[in-house]
Amino acid sequence: MVITTGDNYVGTAENELREDLLDLYSKLASSYDKPSQNDLANLSIVQDKV
Question: Which residue, of 15, 21, 27, 30, has the fewest CB within 10 Å?
């Protein structure tokens, strides 16, 4: 999502919880390997948001 303000500054909004969860789930579901340390760290971040 792109946000523009009055001074025409263009930035990106932070991901919503559903976007973070969907990204993590799709990565884990499509992999045959065990979750990496990075995946587990992302999971704990998502859990903290809930």
Answer: 30
- Answering whether pTM is above 0.70, one says no
Question: What is the C-alpha to C-alpha distance for residues 15 and 40, in angstroms, rounded to an integer?
Answer: 18
For 7, the token pair is 């001074």
Question: Any alpha helices (H) in the chain, and if so which ranges?
Answer: 17-29, 37-49
Q: What is the pLDDT along the chain (50 residues), one digit of tens a residue?
A: 655 566 666 667 777 888 888 998 999 899 889 999 999 998 898 888 88
Cβ density class 14-32: b for 16+ within 10 Å, e for less: eeeeeebbeebeeeeeeee
